């Protein structure tokens, strides 16, 4: 049994779980996984056995429960500073936290109209002027961030700050949405999405999502 356990929802649908899980992988911890399928009669009572908020992801470590994806990122960064989950330079770190918090607190149009559904293909569905506006805001932040910070990083693997950080984890479910809903992209955005989808833990998650048995009707587009 590993020292850490991460409780998550379905890999195909649970965007917040994906964020926490990628952060755990990027931090390099060994962890056990408990998958609680969402939208079943027993979902809430099962999640509440582990998570005081009734939400996933929650990271369990030596009697401590850490819930909320961003808090999980902070805890992992405290325990594993060598993983540089937040960029090392103060300005880059502040920028990464701004980007991540904006994602955590916002983009409700995108989140509601284009729910994460990794194995589905819904070209053109879910797009509204408000969704388009949020996607433009996100992709302009990505372009600006890569221009300002990735080039100056010791190693540029195509991520927002060069190497994979918590900020990339926060936006990974946006990357899968752009793919599921076949949103038109400029070449910089396309390159960034390709880098995220090629990140080995991301590939592992996507493969698992495609092989999950559960189908949640209410999360599928008509
Ligand atoms: N702000 C939370 C959001 C967590 C969240 O909303 N998780 C959803 C799954 S993606 C959940 O636990 N839903 C509970 C349910 O469906 O019963 C975070 O950052 O971790």
UniProtKB/TrEMBL annotation:
Domain GST N-terminal residues, every copy: 4-84
Protein's UniProt name: Glutathione S-transferase
Record-level GO cellular component terms: cytoplasm
Pfam families: GST_C_2, GST_N_2
InterPro entries: Glutathione-S-Trfase_C_sf, Glutathione_S-Trfase, Glutathione_S-Trfase_N, GST_Omega/HSP26, Thioredoxin-like_sf
Lineage: Bacteria, Pseudomonadati, Pseudomonadota, Alphaproteobacteria, Hyphomicrobiales
Domain of life, per lineage: Bacteria
Organism: Reyranella soli
Listed SUPFAM superfamilies: GST C-terminal domain-like, Thioredoxin-like
Keyword Transferase in record: yes
Keywords: Transferase
Molecular-function GO term, any one: transferase activity
């Amino acid at each position: 049994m590993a020292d850490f356990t991460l409780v998550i929802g379905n890999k195909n649908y649970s965007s917040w779980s994906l964020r926490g899980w990628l952060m755990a992988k990027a931090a390099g911890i060994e962890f056990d996984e408990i998958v609680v399928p969402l939208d079943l009669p027993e979902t809430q009572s099962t999640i509440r056995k582990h998570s005081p908020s009734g939400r996933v992801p929650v990271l369990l470590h030596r009697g401590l429960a850490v819930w909320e994806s961003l808090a999980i990122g902070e805890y992992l960064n405290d325990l594993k500073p060598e993983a540089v989950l937040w960029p090392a330079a103060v300005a880059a770190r502040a920028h990464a936290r701004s980007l991540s918090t904006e994602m955590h607190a916002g983009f409700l149009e995108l989140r509601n109209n284009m729910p994460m559904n990794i194995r589905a293909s819904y070209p053109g569905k879910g797009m509204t002027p408000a969704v388009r506006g949020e996607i433009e805001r996100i992709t302009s932040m990505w372009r600006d961030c890569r221009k300002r910070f990735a080039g100056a990083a010791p190693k540029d693997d195509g991520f927002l700050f060069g190497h994979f950080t918590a900020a990339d984890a926060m936006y990974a479910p946006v990357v899968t949405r752009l793919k599921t809903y076949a949103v038109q992209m400029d070449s910089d955005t396309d390159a960034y999405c390709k880098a995220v989808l090629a990140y080995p833990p991301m590939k592992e998650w996507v493969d698992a999502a495609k092989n999950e048995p559960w189908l949640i009707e209410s999360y599928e587009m008509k």
